[in-house]
Amino acid sequence: MELIQAHPYRHAIGRRPALARARRSTQPSRRWILLAGVSTLIVGAASLLTFARGAPFSAHASWYAWALLVSLILWVIAAMQRAVEYRRHLTALHTRASEVERELSESRLRLLQMQLHPHFLFNALNTVSAHAEHDARTTRLLIEHLGELLQCSLENLHEREIELGRELTFLARYVEFQKIRFEDRFDVVLNVDDQASAALVPPVILQPLVENAIRHGVLVRGRKGVIRVEAWRDDRQLHLSVRDDGPGLPRGWDLTSRGGIGLLNTRERLRQLYGETNQSCAIFNQPEGGVSVELTLPFRSTS
Questions:
Q1: Where are the domains of the chain?
Q2: Class of 135-298 per CATH?
Q3: Backbone phi and psi for residue 249, each to the nearest 5 degrees, phi listed first
């Protein structure tokens, strides 16, 4: 974890030449300040010599007026140059701070995505292990599907967003794996409108929701269950929904304390990608029974 989160700091350390350039950019104002200071000292020294000799000031009034005017102009130029440099320096600092913050956010997002893979792989290997001793055919099928899942997962590992179609392909392979495991104890019904099919979504955003619907929803029933996965566009927003027909959430259920890795990870990834106000993750019991998880995120597409 420390290596992943240290990545933005390594980039920040690598920007020391940029800081040196920012320091060098202050040299023009220093030259103007030095020039203005020297001219002021010359005027002051000339004034002292004039008064020391007892010469009348009026004899050199024109020279003093021009000398003072030149000094004043030099000080004004120095002040303006310094103000410009200060503004540039602030802009550079703001830019560097934004870059570091963005890289930190990307590191957190990668960490959250990587958190899902050991969790998923652990559950999958447990499934294969449970069938290995007494069902060789099912074990072979599970291993084949697991290989496809891992390949698809690795392809999307470093992507911030992928097309919904790719996410649904991964989800279909995951569902096949689980249906073999649980001997067709559930069906998954998919409903995606045409506009939503080209949307960009975070990779592996639906799998944790379907996994929860399987484990805590349809498998708890005494008969075959149904999980419905829907996606639709509403103006500038994309809606993703996963619903099951299981027993529903227990009284007093809370996402923070009892949500599990998958749901908590999903909520945090949405926050990292889209901020606090541009996304939502709602989990609630349906009036007809079962649990509904609805995600809302900004609609973006590759086209």
A1: 2-99, 135-298
A2: alpha beta
A3: -75, 140
